[in-house]
Amino acid sequence: MGKAPSTPATRLLREKGVAYTEHLYRYEERGGTSTSSRELGVDEHAVVKTLVMEDESGAPLVVLMHGDREVSTKALARQLGRREVRICRPEVANRHSGYQVGGTSPLGTRKPMPVCMERTILDLPRIYVNGGSRGFLVGVAPRDLAALLAPTLVEVALAT
Q1: Rounded to an integer, what distance in angstroms lies between the CA atom of residue 55 and that of residue 32?
Q2: For residues 48 and 121, is the Cβ–Cβ distance under 8 A?
Q3: Alpha-carbon distance 121 to 142, whole Å?
């Protein structure tokens, strides 16, 4: 597969001394977490997707969700005290995060954004989040990720 890329996400993990593992896989356009979990041989529930969303005023936020779940944007808006939360258009998400959609990491984003994390992610022993490039995930302990990102814990998961 080649060598894992150095990205703002991996540089931040190294700088903060967070233990992580690198996992390369063959990226598929619109393959999502079902592709990465299959390629890496891990449970899709442990592959955490990074979603760039915005509220009614266009203020961006990052949402971390289990790969096999969807986000209830209504529940998220309610829990955050916002009128509305919606997924950003890809070009807007790219601008906010500094990453290309499909390779968006919650770490080392271009703009600091508030992070929301589905509470049950913390129950897992290890999670796999995007490392900042398509076809590249990093494995970390969820508590280490939470210590770095200081997320707001939410309960907004919908079964897919």
Answers
A1: 24
A2: yes
A3: 7
- Average confidence (pLDDT) over 13-26: 97
CATH for 8-159 (3.30.479.20, 3.90.960.10, 1.10.10.10, 1.10.340.30): 3.90.960.10
Residue with tokens 């991996």: 10
Q: Give me the residues paired with residue 115 across strands.
A: 62
Domain parsing of the chain, residue ranges: 8-159
What is the rounded CA–CA span in Å between residue 108 and residue 117?
16
The answer to whether the beta carbons of residues 129 and 115 sit under 8 Å apart is no
User: Radius of gyration over alpha carbons of the chain, in Å?
Assistant: 14
Taking residues 121-131, what's their average pLDDT?
98
- Summarised one tens digit per residue, pLDDT across range 50-84 is 999 999 999 999 999 999 999 999 999 999 999 99
Query: How would you write 98-149 as a 3-class SS string?
Result: CCCCCCCCCCCCCCCCCEEEEHHHHHCCCEEEEEEECCEEEEECHHHHHHHH
Kindly report the backbone phi and psi dihedral angles of residue 8, in degrees, each rounded to the nearest multiple of 5, phi listed first.
Answer: -55, -35
